[in-house]
Amino acid sequence: MALDTALSGELLTYNRVINNAELYDDGCLRIEHASYYIAYKGKVISLPRKEFLIVSRLAKSAERTVKSEELWHYAWGSGAVFNARSLRVHIHRLRRELAPYCVKIESMINVGYRLSLESRNGHNVLTSLLTSAVCLSAIAGFFC
What we know:
Blueprint: H1 2-19, E1 23-25, E2 29-32, E3 37-40, E4 43-44, H2 49-60, E5 66-67, H3 68-76, H4 84-98, E6 103-108, E7 112-117, H5 125-143
Antiparallel strand pairs: 1-2, 2-3, 3-4, 5-7, 6-7
Protein backbone atom coordinates (compact mmCIF):
# COMPACT_ATOMS: atom_id res chain seq x y z
CA MET A 1 0.00 0.00 0.00
CA ALA A 2 2.83 2.43 0.85
CA LEU A 3 4.42 1.76 -2.54
CA ASP A 4 1.14 2.53 -4.31
CA THR A 5 0.86 5.83 -2.42
CA ALA A 6 4.46 6.78 -3.20
CA LEU A 7 4.04 5.84 -6.84
CA SER A 8 0.81 7.80 -7.23
CA GLY A 9 2.46 10.83 -5.59
CA GLU A 10 5.40 10.67 -8.02
CA LEU A 11 3.08 10.27 -11.00
CA LEU A 12 0.82 13.09 -9.78
CA THR A 13 3.80 15.46 -9.76
CA TYR A 14 4.86 14.24 -13.19
CA ASN A 15 1.35 14.73 -14.56
CA ARG A 16 1.17 18.29 -13.24
CA VAL A 17 4.40 19.08 -15.05
CA ILE A 18 3.43 17.54 -18.37
CA ASN A 19 -0.34 17.73 -18.70
CA ASN A 20 -1.40 21.09 -17.28
CA ALA A 21 -0.68 23.85 -19.78
CA GLU A 22 -1.51 26.68 -17.33
CA LEU A 23 0.58 25.36 -14.43
CA TYR A 24 4.09 24.02 -14.14
CA ASP A 25 4.87 22.42 -10.79
CA ASP A 26 7.65 19.91 -10.22
CA GLY A 27 7.52 20.04 -6.43
CA CYS A 28 10.16 22.78 -6.19
CA LEU A 29 9.54 25.21 -9.01
CA ARG A 30 5.99 26.46 -9.58
CA ILE A 31 4.97 28.64 -12.51
CA GLU A 32 1.41 29.84 -12.97
CA HIS A 33 1.46 31.07 -16.54
CA ALA A 34 -1.77 33.08 -16.58
CA SER A 35 -1.07 34.97 -13.33
CA TYR A 36 2.64 35.67 -13.96
CA TYR A 37 3.62 33.85 -10.77
CA ILE A 38 6.89 31.99 -10.25
CA ALA A 39 8.15 30.56 -6.98
CA TYR A 40 10.81 28.13 -5.83
CA LYS A 41 9.86 26.10 -2.73
CA GLY A 42 7.31 28.76 -1.86
CA LYS A 43 9.68 31.72 -2.26
CA VAL A 44 8.39 34.13 -4.90
CA ILE A 45 10.87 35.02 -7.63
CA SER A 46 10.38 38.49 -9.06
CA LEU A 47 11.12 38.76 -12.77
CA PRO A 48 10.48 41.43 -15.41
CA ARG A 49 7.54 40.56 -17.67
CA LYS A 50 9.58 39.59 -20.76
CA GLU A 51 11.87 37.35 -18.73
CA PHE A 52 8.89 35.73 -17.02
CA LEU A 53 7.37 35.04 -20.44
CA ILE A 54 10.62 33.41 -21.61
CA VAL A 55 10.75 31.13 -18.54
CA SER A 56 7.04 30.43 -18.84
CA ARG A 57 7.43 29.29 -22.45
CA LEU A 58 10.46 27.15 -21.61
CA ALA A 59 8.56 25.54 -18.72
CA LYS A 60 5.72 24.58 -21.03
CA SER A 61 8.26 22.38 -22.81
CA ALA A 62 10.56 21.55 -19.90
CA GLU A 63 13.59 19.48 -20.92
CA ARG A 64 12.79 20.11 -24.61
CA THR A 65 14.46 22.64 -26.83
CA VAL A 66 12.40 25.66 -27.83
CA LYS A 67 13.55 27.53 -30.93
CA SER A 68 14.91 31.03 -30.33
CA GLU A 69 12.44 32.57 -32.74
CA GLU A 70 9.54 30.88 -30.95
CA LEU A 71 10.70 32.24 -27.58
CA TRP A 72 11.06 35.71 -29.08
CA HIS A 73 7.58 35.72 -30.60
CA TYR A 74 6.05 34.33 -27.39
CA ALA A 75 7.54 37.15 -25.30
CA TRP A 76 7.48 40.06 -27.77
CA GLY A 77 4.56 39.10 -29.99
CA SER A 78 4.38 37.75 -33.50
CA GLY A 79 4.72 41.19 -35.09
CA ALA A 80 8.12 41.89 -33.49
CA VAL A 81 11.22 41.42 -35.62
CA PHE A 82 13.45 38.68 -34.17
CA ASN A 83 16.53 40.01 -32.37
CA ALA A 84 18.88 37.19 -31.34
CA ARG A 85 21.24 39.51 -29.46
CA SER A 86 18.47 40.94 -27.30
CA LEU A 87 17.17 37.43 -26.56
CA ARG A 88 20.67 36.36 -25.48
CA VAL A 89 20.85 39.32 -23.07
CA HIS A 90 17.53 38.34 -21.49
CA ILE A 91 18.61 34.69 -21.24
CA HIS A 92 21.86 35.82 -19.57
CA ARG A 93 19.89 37.82 -16.98
CA LEU A 94 17.54 34.89 -16.38
CA ARG A 95 20.43 32.49 -15.84
CA ARG A 96 21.92 34.81 -13.26
CA GLU A 97 18.57 35.31 -11.52
CA LEU A 98 17.58 31.61 -11.48
CA ALA A 99 21.00 30.08 -10.65
CA PRO A 100 20.41 30.08 -6.84
CA TYR A 101 17.26 28.00 -7.42
CA CYS A 102 18.97 25.18 -9.36
CA VAL A 103 17.13 26.19 -12.51
CA LYS A 104 19.29 26.19 -15.62
CA ILE A 105 18.65 27.43 -19.11
CA GLU A 106 20.77 25.47 -21.55
CA SER A 107 21.75 26.75 -24.99
CA MET A 108 21.35 24.57 -28.02
CA ILE A 109 23.67 26.36 -30.43
CA ASN A 110 21.94 27.72 -33.54
CA VAL A 111 18.64 26.21 -32.40
CA GLY A 112 17.27 27.58 -29.13
CA TYR A 113 17.11 27.02 -25.40
CA ARG A 114 15.72 24.54 -22.92
CA LEU A 115 14.84 24.61 -19.26
CA SER A 116 16.84 22.12 -17.25
CA LEU A 117 16.02 21.45 -13.62
CA GLU A 118 18.54 19.88 -11.32
CA SER A 119 18.00 18.72 -7.79
CA ARG A 120 20.42 19.61 -5.01
CA ASN A 121 22.54 16.50 -5.69
CA GLY A 122 22.86 17.27 -9.40
CA HIS A 123 20.32 14.78 -10.75
CA ASN A 124 17.69 15.94 -13.16
CA VAL A 125 14.29 16.38 -11.47
CA LEU A 126 12.12 14.94 -14.28
CA THR A 127 14.49 12.04 -14.89
CA SER A 128 14.48 11.29 -11.16
CA LEU A 129 10.67 11.30 -11.08
CA LEU A 130 10.41 8.96 -14.04
CA THR A 131 13.11 6.64 -12.72
CA SER A 132 11.40 6.51 -9.32
CA ALA A 133 8.04 5.73 -10.90
CA VAL A 134 9.50 2.93 -13.04
CA CYS A 135 11.40 1.44 -10.10
CA LEU A 136 8.39 1.61 -7.78
CA SER A 137 6.09 0.01 -10.34
CA ALA A 138 8.64 -2.76 -10.94
CA ILE A 139 8.94 -3.40 -7.21
CA ALA A 140 5.15 -3.33 -6.76
CA GLY A 141 4.74 -5.80 -9.63
CA PHE A 142 7.36 -8.08 -8.11
CA PHE A 143 5.55 -8.24 -4.77
CA CYS A 144 2.04 -8.55 -6.20
